Amino acid sequence: MTTSTSQLTTLFIVVALVCAFVPAFSVEEGEAKTLWDTCLLKITPKCALDIIGVVFGNGTITDACCHDLVEEGKVCHDTLIKYISDRPHLVANETQYLKKRDDLWIHCVSVTKTA
Q1: How many CB atoms lie within 10 A of CB 44?
Q2: pLDDT of residue 32
Q3: Which residues contact 70 (CB under 8 A, 6 or more apart)?
Q4: What is the pTM of this model?
Q5: Which keywords has UniProt assigned to this entry (predicted)?
Q6: How crowded is the C-beta side of 106, counted as CA atoms within 13 Å?
């Protein structure tokens, strides 16, 4: 459990640093920062870590985080995951990450509808 948490924390730190210093796909640098700042205001750091863990690893997400994710909105979710998955060291598995992103969205929408 500690190794898994440590790996997830390391992954998040690496992804955050890469995203902070490398411009994104078709989103201009200033636009990416605005999107990043706007979208991440709607979600807790714990939920952000859980989302990254689900999409880029084998993590799990709570119903509460699903509610936060749906409140954040699909555009924010899609854009931020695409932004991260476009990094040079992740792009080889981008298709897999985007599928996991979409699967997570569908799961979280279904969770919020049943609550």
Answers
A1: 12
A2: 64
A3: 108, 109, 112
A4: 0.71
A5: Signal
A6: 6
Which residues of the chain have a pLDDT value below 50?
10-11, 14, 17-18, 20-27
What is the residue type of 70? V
The structure tokens listed for 51 are 């989302």
Return the C-alpha torsion angle 59, 63, 77, 85, nearest 10. Answer: 0
Residue 98's Cα: distance from chain center in Å? 10
The Cα 101–Cα 89 span in angstroms is 18
Q: What is the C-alpha to C-alpha distance for residues 54 and 109, in angstroms, rounded to an integer?
A: 15
Give the position of tokens 């924010």: 76
Residues 39, 115, 101, CA angle at the centre, nearest 5°? 40
Which one, of 34, 3, 38, 32, lies nearest residue 18 by Cα?
Answer: 32
Residue type, 99: K
Question: CA-to-CA distance for 47 and 23, rounded, in angstroms?
Answer: 24
